[in-house]
Design goal:
The complex is a heterodimer of chains A (329) and B (368).
Chain A (H helix, E strand, L loop, with lengths): L1 H27 L7 H21 L10 H29 L4 H27 L9 H8 L9 H8 L3 H19 L1 H11 L1 H6 L4 H27 L12 H11 L4 H16 L9 H25 L20
Chain B lengths: L1 H7 L6 E5 L5 H27 L3 H13 L2 H26 L7 H18 L6 H30 L3 H22 L26 H20 L1 H11 L1 H6 L4 H28 L10 H11 L4 H24 L6 H21 E5 L2 H6 L1
Antiparallel strand pairs in B: 1-2
Helix pairs in contact in B: 2-14, 3-13, 4-8, 4-9, 4-11, 4-12, 4-13, 5-6, 5-7, 5-11, 5-12, 6-7, 6-11, 8-9, 9-11, 12-13, 13-14
Classes of the chains: A mainly alpha (329), B mainly alpha (368).
Amino acid sequence: MIATLFQRAIMQGIPLLCGATGEILTEKSGNLNLGIPGIMYVGGISGVIGGFLYESSFMGHKEDMNGFLAILIPLVCCVVGSLLMGLIYAFLTTTMRANQNVTGLALTTFGVGFGNFFGGSLIKLTGSSMPSITLSKTSEFFCQSLPIAEDLGWFGQIFLSHGFLAYLAIILAVGTGVMLKRTRVGLHLRAVGESPATADAAGINVGRYKYAATCIGSVIAGLGGLYYVMDYANGIWSNDAFGDRGWLAIAIVIFALWKPNLAIPASILFGGLYIVHNYIPGIDFSTQELIKMAPYVLTILVLIVISIIDRRENQPPAALGLNYFREER
Amino acid sequence: MRQSHNSGTVKEPLFHITKRAAIPWWQSWLIRIASVLAALIVCAVITILATKQNPLEMYATMFRGAVGNARRVWSLFQNLAMLLCVSLAVTPAFKMRFWNIGAEGQVMMGGLASAMCMILLGNVLPEWLLLTVIVAAGIIAGAVWAVIPAIFKASFNTNETLFTLMMNYIAIQLVSYFVLQFSVPKGSGHIGEIPTGWLPTIFGQPYLLNIVVVAVLTVGMYIYLKYSKHGYEIAVVGESEKTARYIGINVKKVIIRTMLLSGALCGLAGVLLVSGTDHTLASTTAGGRGFTAIMVSWLAKFNPLYMILTSFLIVFLEKGAIEIATVFDLNSSFASIITGIIIFFIIGSEFFINYSLKFRHAAGEAKS
């Protein structure tokens, strides 16, 4: 049972991890993108639209579906969808110099609406004969795990039973951490987030870094949405099922002190808190709601503690949420 | 050699962005109206693609949905009033550059407190005392929820955007908890209509009280921000904390006082929603208004009177889009898409109000 809890906690944690990694990358450039929840919805539904069109074209003979295309099409759709969302944000805040909070919240309104609209209307819009958005065949390809997983007992169940997107998420998180800490690009990016004026004076193209970080961050976050529908939810899209996971991802960014490596255990912890009530016997529905509150309380405590201790390396990027106008230095 | 070569062909960008001096008010409004029109055209194209109807008919449907009959007009004004109330609440904090994005949670806490009083004290206290307690409890709960982040901001400079954001979800989970605890019948997950502790109605119109209260608040907030000493202090702290400290304003006090006010008004919005109109509590009582209000307030440049316009625009579009979705059997989230697009356009238009583009002039082209 403990093994199952861990396995489910990891599955819950992966979408959060993607969102958190994407948001860390974005915030390191000084952009506080509150559109992440919307972007994750868009990433999920874009993948669903792609998969839906592909799978429904094989109505009646689904065994002919090509596994490679069944993964590639939703993946590309998801990347394009979330990239466009990132571009909207970057264009409005970096080029048009709009307020970041307002832009982000508008992006979330738009993205969640976009997801629910297509989730609720896709069948009618395409005139398909499918009764509901259930991409079980596509999902099978996404969930494909290593065949040796079953032979390795609890170890296999916890660590090897996941679809490829889960491992991709962890690789992306580790990779982002290395990039931020060990490469020149990462150094420049952090400079942009801490003090864009200094970075600009040092010859770093602030706008380009902000654009790149925001767009790549959005794509990573969007992958979390795709993992959620295709792997966790077995290809079934139901409106609002994704819930407040996007905000939870933003909480993880704080909880992990803006470090992608720490975001990995933090995501699994928060994912576990999301479902732990299923594994505690004799718990009633109302207490579950209190347990679901725990991640947010923990995050606030971390936020308070880091602001009281006030150590440089644990702080949010100094220019977080502020736009950079060269003319106003 | 190379140096001189470079200086001869120094690349001039296609255009320069320069900050404008203040432009006449009619010009800035022209830009805003143009952006709304552009957004409406984009929305129309999207709607036509989704519904395959001609645009005129679509706008007629939208109008019918928003103001088609008396009931809809009342409901429009009720929604307008509630959105405006939350927008007014967040405004003083925003003017101070304190990003209170926790309005959703503060409204929920106000609603939760008043619902608790309605349930627990409903048959205990006389009517007038009960109503007083309900209103007071709601306002205090909202204020407490807002002042916690404010105290930490003032004392330790804790990031208020992230703090208030997290407080929202704690409030929503608390409401979910109590809704399950007090659900009628037990275990149904709904509180249902609470029979006691309803705010009175004026002229038999269920929404009129809310509308009147919010109208008074709007004027009050305008005066508070524009003519009172507090309003001045808020503006100074918002412009520059250092200046504020230099001229002897107690910045800590201003932050905490302003957030108390902001939270109290959010709490009041919760009371008006729960005790005034819904007579029940659910985790969706605030309905995302706390987030929409941030956009409303910002789009109106923190001016309470303009906020009437911006919140009307958003509520009208929402109602209209929901009607389109119902008529054409589409998902009602269509409204969120439309709202999102409109806001993107208005946000974008602010750029053209604050900055102007100076294109590379022809002479420069000829020289190179």
